[in-house]
Amino acid sequence: MTTAHESPASEAEISVHWREEDYYQPPAKFIAQANAADPDILGRFDEGHFPDCFKEYADLLSWDAYWHTTLDTSNPPFWRWFVGGRLNACYNCVDRHLATDRNKAALIWVPEPEDEPTRTITYQELYRQVNEFAALLRDFCGLRTGDRVTFHLPMVPELPVAMLACARLGVIHSEVFGGFSGAACGERIADSGSRILVTTDGYYRNGQLFDHKAKADEAVRTADGLGQQVDKVLVWRRHAGRCTSRTPMVDGRDFFVDELLAEHHRAVVEPVSMPAEAPLFLMYTSGTTARPKGCQHSTGGYLAYVAGTSKYYQDIHPEDTYWCCADIGWITGHSYIVYGPLALGTTSVIYEGAPTYPDAGRVWRIAERLGVNIFHTAPTTIRMLRKLGPREPDRYDYHLKHMTTVGEPIEPEVWRWYHDVAGKGEAVVVDTWWQTENGGFLGSTLPALQPMKPGSCGPGVLGVYPVIYDENGNIVEAGSGKAGNICIRNPWPGIFQTIWGQPERFVQIYYAKYCRNPASTDWRDWPYFAGDGAVQAADGYFRILGRVDDVINVAGHRLGTKELESASLTVHEVSEAAAVPVIDEIRGRAVEMYVALQPGTAPTEAIRQAVTGAIEREIGKIARPKNVWIVDDMPKTRSGKIMRRVIAGISNFSDVGDVSTLANPEIVDEIRHRIQSAKLAHGEVPRQLTREEAAEIRSFGRNE
Ligand code: PRX
């Protein structure tokens, strides 16, 4: 791997010539009730007021002790926010609402099977469940402040209960997305040093009841192989008192949570008053190497940031019914299903299953039935809903005031359907650009004050000052039509604190590239490198082009090429592997794998299937490649590096660029002919890529 320092001359600095989209104005009805309707707020958060502007966010919380220093920059880039302050995140999301809203719905859980009743958990009920589970974690599992615990939970209400119970104790939770494999979970258990795993027997997705507990056994085995012993596996049961998993419980290790909870009935656990900078949770994400990065988020800065952005950008009022149709296993769910909405005391809806199960009207039926008025989801879901039920929203009587899109670039056409059809032209749409590392939004529009522009996320959010740099650190001016690397010039309270156990990697990946002076303690010398290409229009709005590192964003899930390749290499016939993105109508991007075999090995269907199987086993079904191509050799540079951009060009029927300097240029035509004929024979219809898509493919893998 080359380091960020050594990355070659930029191909991110492409010229971009798309049509400027027209603005959409927010409805007057929305403006009349918006949390941020007075333009004064923009002045309060301008650079002259940094960092003290964030006091406004912190004051949304209840503190046990107020902080003495808003931002401590003495050990850059390990920023410390609200230093000296103490608080408890669970108290802020639960206890403090009891006085006025005890029996108001905190969570409404919608099971996937439509004949199963929804479950409403009031703040009072949430308080009781969280206390009892916290008692179990403390007294039965022996967990203490600062310990880590791993969850591998799907979209069940027990997940927020478990998160809040940890927060109550100051225990650091690390939730692994339920769709990830047992092996991926085990690797994250080992990395975080957890000795407790919390899971469930099963859950519904697309009409199927999955045996989830089977993954726990594999996770424990994997962690054990990596030197981390798991002492206890706590299993919640999806159906009261009935275990649906065929996997046997391991005596002395596996316990049903409902049975254990009987011992902690009526328990009350005092919330532990934590320093603002104490870690609240870890969230793993992918990058350029195979080892996942455990992004460590703080208690005070993070919670203040998600509360503030939920209030002003999501326009959440306590009386709203808010539904973020995303998974809590991703940062979006942590920040904008659980912590942000509950900190503001609103009602947050959680849906267990697939958005299009059993049909394309499901989402809109839920919105109608529950009276949802704020809806939040990802472009992949929007594209799917549009494709399967283009007029389905007309059939349901729901009315949204606000809609969010997150996680991937959204095509203006898809944006317009979201606004006009899904939102019935009544709602504002905010496009929110950010990352697992960031805690909360970085680029978006303040919905009552800044007009919407399809395909652009908007300017930097309050108190966040983005900039686009070229490879040499020169500013790429707004309106220049040039793209470059989007960076954030300043720290903000939601920024992650470090990569768990890898502080050098934290500095190297995110700050080394544009740091002006490593000895400086002035935040101005430490821009944050986001790893995305972007272009800024003359009005200051950013359009995000996608990753500039070796990450493929599939349906809003970040998959590292190295992870995919190392999984493929576990198949012993495989000698080399390369993962590339292909443009996909629904998922944005899909993965194609190219593998070369050990000398003397004949290509077979079984090997192709083994590669797919290995990826599903090591990472999970979400990473399943669209195709696995076995090739005789890979296009390589003279120094032996695989040229992923050439392969990506072949997979996307686009220009492969100059190949004359390769060590084996003749292989390119051979592969192209074979792969593209096979694709056409399978009925694939190549489409002309847009300029931006073509530029992305052309520059893929440039960090290699
Ligand atoms: O490339 C950007 C894309 O998703 C990446 C972050 O992925 P993740 O850490 O999984 O977090 C997703 C949810 C916060 C970014 O580097 N991305 C995220 N939001 C947008 C986006 N691309 C375009 N527009 C967005 N609104």
Please characterize this protein's 3D structure.
With 704 residues, the chain is an alpha/beta fold. The chain starts with 27 loop residues before the first helix and ends in a 6-residue tail after the last helix. A hairpin with a 5-residue loop joins strand 24 (528-536) and strand 25 (542-547). Helices cover 29% and strands 21% of the residues. It is globular. It has 21 helices and 30 strands. An eight-stranded mixed β-sheet has the order 12-11-8-6-7-14-15-23, with helices on both faces. The structure holds adenosine-5'-monophosphate-propyl ester. Adenosine-5'-monophosphate-propyl ester is lined by residues 285, 331-332, 406-409, 431-436, 457, 531-532, 544, 546-547, 553, 556, 558.
The number of helical elements comes to: 21
How far the N terminus sits from the C terminus, by CA atoms, comes to 6 Å
Rg, Cα atoms, Å = 25 Å
Bin the strand percentage: 15-25%
The parts where pLDDT drops under 50 for at least 5 residues are: 1-12
Order the strands across the largest sheet as they lie in space.
Answer: 12-11-8-6-7-14-15-23
